[in-house]
Amino acid sequence: MDGKSVRLLIVALAVSLVVGGSLAVSDARAEFPEGPIRMLVAFTPGGSMDISVRAISAAAEKQLGKPIVIENKGGGGGTVALGVLANEKPDGYTLCGATTSGLIRSPLMQKVIYKPLKSFTPIIGFAYPQLAIMVPNESPFKDLKELLDYAKKNPNKIKYGTTGPGSGQHVQMELLAHQLGINWVHIPYKGSQDAIMALLGGHIDVASVGPEFVPVKRANQARVLAVCQSKKSPNFPEIPTIPELGYNVVDEVVFCIVGPAGMPPQVLQKLEKAFKDAMESQEFKKAVEQLDLITVYYNNKDFQKYMEECWLRTENSLKETGVIKEAATSPR
Questions:
Q1: In the chain, what are the domains?
Q2: What sections of the chain are H helices per DSSP?
């Protein structure tokens, strides 16, 4: 074989290796997921976040062809699980069911180990939870005004429980306190279920909780004084909203699924589609109805934009009401 033929053979082999390598990478990406996906849940088992993430994950794994394994990591108003996620490989095999409380409010109010607008890849926003303020049936407070009037006249006498510092439930109560000049004692829990159990057990006077209030209300185990959104609860239209009662305090929370920052576009697209399609499943729709959730859809780009806007809006609100002087965590 002459020199020219040898050179041509080397070139042909090089081209085949490059093409073959590209196809192998393409095939590897096309095969995602090759194994189980780990889904962290930022709150304790049995709550609305846990149940809704389990439902959407069960439907999504049918689309993906691999199991999604749930792992609850409650605590810190949803920040514990997000702290774990921020240090995981961005390969799509570790995700987190979280809330905007853990992504936005908690980092504004307390220092966290991640950068809220930099450390994550948004995949989908899928629901708004209904938040509520409730007291035991034997409580002397028949409505929200009675509770707030007493709390104002009796500093630090009222103990209230929430899902943790910076959660929507915590912010709601602190905004009311700052607006009305109230001093009361915050008792943080790892989830709404824990706060409700503490309320029913007589350990706290008030609970500011998520949709977990729904079965408690249906069973007539506690008295709901108000819901914390601008719209009434679809299942309990008789319960007043906080704005209806004359208080200019409204907080919003979005349930979402995020991954670590830097996920490959092909992986993100596959996950985004799987979870979007999962929202059409009967198991997800049934869970949403039972939990009194309001469905919403944000894709990756829309949710990133929403988080940017929510950070600025919430930061300004917390500063204006005196809840914070400066953000406790840098967003980037």
A1: 36-128+253-320 (3.40.190.150), 132-227 (3.40.190.10)
A2: 3-30, 48-64, 79-85, 100, 106-109, 144-153, 168-180, 192-200, 213-218, 265-278, 282-291, 300-320
